Amino acid sequence: MSITTEIKVGALFASTNDLRTAIAKSLMESGRGVMSGSGGGKQKKFYCSGRQKTGATLPGCPYEVRATKLRTGDWNISFASLSHDNCSGGSSKGRMCGIQSMVSSAVRLDPSVAATTLKKRIETSEGIKLSYRTTARAISNAARATTGECAESYTYLPAFVNDLQDGSPGSIAVVEVSLY
Prior knowledge:
Blueprint: E1 12-13, H1 16-28, E2 34-36, E3 43-48, E4 64-69, E5 75-81, H2 93-109, H3 115-126, H4 132-146, H5 157-167
Antiparallel strand pairs: 1-5, 2-3, 3-4, 4-5
Helix pairs in contact: 1-2, 2-4, 3-4
């Protein structure tokens, strides 16, 4: 079995994050967002954010993906209804999730990248229509992740290296930190 990024029944994903990102990217291509439904530790449900919740029913867009966690730890898509009928499109949270990794990479390469420049670059290379605001928020999130809030995480690295060396005698581990 091989890991994939295509959304179809039988597709495998290495982690919940990989699964959610692939679904968000597929929805983002049509300008829609993703929302998670009910589901516990071994089952996940994802819907188009164009689906409106009214009481116990969810009318509107029938887009739905269900995944089950296998014993191997991989996530298997067990059901996929990928059509967008009677869909309002919903929010763009999926769009932000889908572009965040691209924006983070661009910000690491050039921390002073302008939102308009990056917006045009992503629209040209990926074919995804973005608003200036979405691009600016993604740049802000990427900048915040590389400094500030995440900075304290780096203080834990020496302890992790020590634990790694204690747990694996003879191994060599080195901490190298770069801002960009």
